[in-house]
Write a structure and sequence with these properties.
The protein contains 5 helices and 4 strands. The chain is α/β, with parallel strands linked by helices. The longest helix is centred in the middle third of the chain and has 19 residues, at about 75-95.
């Protein structure tokens, strides 16, 4: 049987998390290629519908990566993002998908090594959980 390779979507804020991901690449730090990065102006711009759409489209796990707390370029966007992630976690638990498939992390621009580590850890966590049941249905329907 083939080993399950999860699809992970990482919504990364432009100023910190995306720059950390870029730094990880520049330093040639390895992290799973199945982490698909979506750059957003601010993690606060990631709404619950964006996270849910990622699952509908077949993602097995989603995390939102924003600036360090108290260091958001848009004042409190990362705090808003964290509240939305908690909301989506509860919603996914209620519908039986599992809230542990969603996470929120805070990074500074210079944390390339930490970005790579988070990507590895989150991928392994989702690999252990198995495929997203909603995404499996969506893939079968198409």
């Amino acid at each position: 049987m083939e080993k399950f390779e999860p699809v992970i979507v990482a919504f990364c804020c432009h100023y910190c998390a995306y720059t950390a991901a870029d730094m990880a690449g520049s330093q040639r730090l390895s992290y799973p290629p199945n982490v698909k990065i979506i750059r957003v102006p601010c993690s606060g711009k990631v709404d619950a519908i964006h996270i849910l759409k990622a699952f509908e489209k077949g993602a097995d796990g989603v995390y939102v990566a924003g600036c360090l707390e108290g260091d958001c370029h848009f004042k409190n966007g990362n705090v808003r993002a964290a509240r939305r992630v908690v909301y989506v976690q509860k919603l996914l638990d209620q519908i039986g998908v599992g809230g542990e498939r969603v996470g929120m992390v805070n990074l500074s621009a210079g944390m390339g090594e930490r970005f790579a580590e988070i990507a590895r850890q989150f991928t392994e966590k989702i690999r252990e959980l198995g495929p997203n049941p909603v995404g499996t249905i969506t893939r079968l329907a198409s």
